[in-house]
Design the sequence.
């Protein structure tokens, strides 16, 4: 029964500028739950996207049910029985459960859709899984957990034999996780192979048979779960080579500049408290979705705060909108520059001037062109933005130069606190170093720097102090000089143990 | 030689200038073509008439142009035009002084602009729906202003002298040999053009049209910028209403029908992207000129109204088609 159903060998895949997979391999047997583990950017998702036909590989062999395949289309992969359930659900919220399950392959009666037959078929599948959902219900009315069950049922309705789940439990409550695990166990017993991608290492013990660990696009090891320990798993996950050199500047740690007390804003920002001092860079480490971006947005007044205090020089300051934050001297370089940082259709000049028009305008709100040109030229030369002139569309620049424009628009003001959210994502090495140098300059000027990054080597190399977040909470704080990758990752995966709670609750019920 | 090149570069380097210049070139070509078919088109008289008639298209083009730059739309323009004409003419036909009537009409119209700004900027209604609502409401107010009928002649209330003065000021009089209607529109165009290109407000309006998230994260008050744009649009519409009242010497409940769409056409012909963030109001000027020249030329050469509409429709869609094709072409390289 336990025969190998998927075998991938020597898989390589490059994206422009990055080698995402380097001779990776992966093996899945029928009737097992395989955990695929690794840090962000280890190549897990890329590998699974190749298996499900979303990406094509550059080289390597792929066998599914003993037959080797060249490039697959998503549709072909689906016909072979490979189903992927993405972290974000892909469903039409206005359609019913049955309609979603049979989307694109509706059961027809003549020229019309046979609603009744579809609902019956859907009910059959749901019943087999012991999922109690009415097939006629509108998907948008269901809680997220039930929607996820529908997604699983949909995958099984096409007779999936290989089921890939990417972080399936992140949005679920303890009880729902229990339910999901029950279904996963049932599928395993029916002979399906399940690939389970998750950062929640605590949960693995309830469900996983084997683990495959990846790092830097490479296969590291594959072990039986019962023969290993959490510490061993984490040790394999970390240990990324630190190839780059990080420019570090030492500075006297100064006064406390900025403090956040008991900040709450939705599920992803829970009771966050920390302080920033002059002359230091504080790194915020964590896995993707740890709530760091949400924290920066709440501080900056983009998202609504439920409670909490923000203090600058010991005085509480009310921040309801980004304008309040900017006025107080707190600025944010956002994570997604195309979406949140730049007006790509406007010239560099207007992008840099945008938040600084209060400084550039004379009477009647007329922009002082001379002052503006001077400010923009200074930003361009300080940051070494490569552009023929100020009138070029910001969208026409390279990623690194775009990022420098986003940074540049904030440096023209005298800010007290600068928050960088993933400032080096998707930019080349030289531009990265320039961004690090810039942060160091700010640090030397006594400006408090908050540096959010998912790249562990970067945080360790640039920050003086590291705060680690996981699932909306701060789970620890380390001095960068003493921190090890293992320690950071242990803190970054310190999820609240939802299942332990249920066990306790169930104990009480009994 | 070099200096000339430099200067040339600096003019075309202004974004949106290319499209606006193409619009002006198109305007000139159209005018010459019509003139060759029917020499009467080249007479000074016709030229002056053309500029005068163009005033209303220029104003709605400016108003709608500003809204298009924010990435929104204002469907209430035509109804606001009617509201302004009806409110001012009703008051004047009942003997209330022109100054008071003009002020009242403008204030009422600005109120509609404010409501548009609130609905779109504050409550985030889709602009199409929000301004569809205010479009019906404003038309309703226009109907109610004089109890469901067109107004009496302005002169019957104000008296011959004051009534004629109003009509001359807004439509029939000339200053420096050109009709006042054109001057009024031109001055407003210059003022709004200045606001859009030189002031903070203008920058904010372009920014929210280009990327509203980035604008918000730069500390821009999106609600305020949206509302200012709708106020500019409402003001332009109000003035069009006053011009129409001056032209007819009375208020007409159906005045301004479809003007919001003329505004879109003028903007789009002049290269203002309906997706927001780009385009120059200068383009709306060219667009209004193209529009009026077509109407004028086709009318004089005796083309039926159906043909006029058809040609105008082809030009509007064609202008955008050329733009889209050009953009896709430039993306590939």
Sequence:
């Amino acid at each position: 029964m336990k025969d190998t159903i998927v075998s991938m060998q020597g898989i390589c895949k490059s994206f422009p500028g990055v080698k995402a997979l380097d001779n990776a391999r992966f093996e899945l047997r029928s009737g097992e739950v395989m955990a695929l583990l690794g840090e962000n950017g280890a190549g897990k998702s890329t590998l699974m996207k190749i298996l499900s036909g979303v990406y094509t590989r550059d080289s390597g062999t792929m066998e599914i049910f003993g037959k080797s395949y060249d490039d697959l289309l998503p549709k072909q992969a689906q016909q072979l029985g490979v189903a992927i359930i993405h972290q974000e659900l892909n469903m039409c919220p206005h359609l019913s459960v049955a309609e979603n399950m049979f989307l694109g392959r509706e059961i027809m009666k003549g020229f019309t859709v046979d609603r009744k037959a579809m609902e019956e078929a859907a009910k059959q599948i749901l019943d087999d899984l012991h999922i109690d959902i009415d097939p006629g219900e509108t998907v948008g009315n269901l809680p997220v957990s039930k929607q996820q069950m529908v997604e699983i049922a949909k995958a099984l309705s096409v007779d999936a034999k290989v089921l890939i789940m990417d972080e399936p439990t992140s949005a679920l409550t303890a009880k729902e996780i229990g339910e999901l695990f029950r279904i996963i166990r049932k599928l395993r017993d029916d002979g399906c192979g399940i690939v389970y991608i998750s950062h929640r290492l605590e949960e693995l013990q309830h469900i996983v048979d084997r683990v495959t660990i990846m790092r830097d696009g490479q296969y590291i090891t594959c072990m039986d779960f019962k023969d290993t320990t959490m510490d061993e798993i984490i040790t394999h996950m970390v240990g990324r080579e630190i190839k780059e050199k990080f420019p570090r500047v030492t500075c006297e740690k100064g006064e406390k500049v900025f403090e956040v007390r008991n900040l709450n804003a939705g599920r992803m920002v829970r009771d966050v408290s920390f302080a920033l001092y002059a002359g230091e860079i504080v790194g915020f480490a964590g896995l993707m979705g740890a709530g760091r971006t949400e924290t920066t947005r709440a501080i900056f007044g983009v998202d609504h705060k439920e409670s909490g205090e923000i203090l600058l020089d010991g005085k509480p300051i009310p921040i309801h909108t980004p304008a309040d934050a900017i006025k107080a001297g707190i600025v944010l370089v956002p994570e997604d520059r195309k979406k949140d940082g730049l007006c790509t259709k406007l010239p560099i000049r207007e992008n840099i001037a945008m938040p600084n028009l209060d400084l550039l305008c004379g009477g009647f709100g007329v922009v002082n062109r001379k002052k503006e040109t001077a400010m923009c030229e200074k930003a361009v030369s300080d940051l070494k933005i490569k552009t023929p002139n100020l009138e070029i569309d910001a969208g026409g620049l390279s990623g690194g130069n775009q990022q420098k424009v986003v940074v540049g628009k904030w440096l023209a003001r005298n800010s007290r606190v600068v928050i960088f959210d993933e400032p080096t994502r998707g930019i080349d090495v030289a531009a990265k170093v320039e961004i690090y140098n810039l942060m160091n300059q700010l640090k030397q000027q006594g400006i408090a720097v908050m540096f959010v990054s998912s790249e562990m080597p970067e945080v360790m190399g640039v920050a003086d102090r590291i705060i680690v977040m996981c699932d909306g909470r701060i789970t620890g704080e380390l001095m960068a000089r003493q921190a090890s990758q293992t320690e950071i990752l242990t803190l970054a995966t310190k999820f609240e143990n939802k299942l332990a709670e249920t066990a306790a609750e169930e104990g009480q019920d009994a | 030689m070099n200096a000339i090149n430099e200067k040339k570069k600096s003019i075309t380097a202004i974004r949106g200038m290319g499209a606006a210049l193409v619009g002006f070139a198109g305007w000139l070509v159209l005018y010459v073509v019509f003139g060759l078919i029917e020499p009467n088109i080249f007479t000074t008289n016709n030229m002056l008439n053309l500029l005068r008639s163009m005033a209303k298209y220029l104003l709605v083009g400016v108003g709608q142009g500003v809204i298009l730059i924010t990435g929104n739309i204002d469907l209430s323009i035509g109804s606001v035009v009617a509201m302004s004409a009806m409110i001012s003419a009703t008051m004047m036909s009942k003997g209330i002084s022109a100054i008071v009537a003009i002020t009242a009409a403008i204030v009422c119209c600005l109120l509609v602009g404010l409501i548009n700004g609130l609905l779109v900027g504050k409550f985030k209604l889709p602009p199409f729906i929000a301004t569809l609502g205010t479009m019906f409401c404003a038309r309703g107010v226009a109907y109610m202003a004089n109890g469901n009928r067109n107004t009496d002649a302005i002169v019957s209330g104000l008296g011959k002298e004051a009534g004629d003065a109003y009509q001359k000021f807004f439509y029939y009089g000339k200053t420096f040999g050109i009709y006042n209607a054109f001057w009024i529109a031109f001055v407003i165009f210059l003022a709004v053009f200045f606001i859009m290109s030189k002031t903070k407000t203008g920058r904010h309006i372009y920014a929210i049209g280009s990327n509203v998230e980035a604008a918000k994260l730069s500390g821009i008050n999106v609600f305020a910028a949206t509302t200012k744009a709708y106020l500019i649009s409402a003001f332009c519409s109000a003035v069009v209403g006053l011009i129409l009242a001056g032209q007819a010497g009375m208020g007409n409940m159906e005045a301004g029908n479809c003007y919001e769409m003329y505004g879109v056409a003028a903007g789009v012909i002049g290269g203002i992207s309906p997706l927001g963030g780009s385009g120059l109001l200068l383009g709306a000027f060219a667009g209004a000129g193209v529009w009026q020249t077509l109407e004028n030329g086709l009318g004089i050469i005796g083309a039926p109204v159906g043909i006029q509409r058809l040609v105008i429709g082809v030009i509007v869609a064609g202008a955008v088609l050329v733009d889209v094709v050009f953009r896709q072409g430039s993306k590939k390289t």
Notes: Chain A touches chain B through 35 residues (CB under 8 Å). Residues 506-510 of chain A have pLDDT under 50 and may be disordered. The first strand of chain A starts at residue 4 and ends at 15.
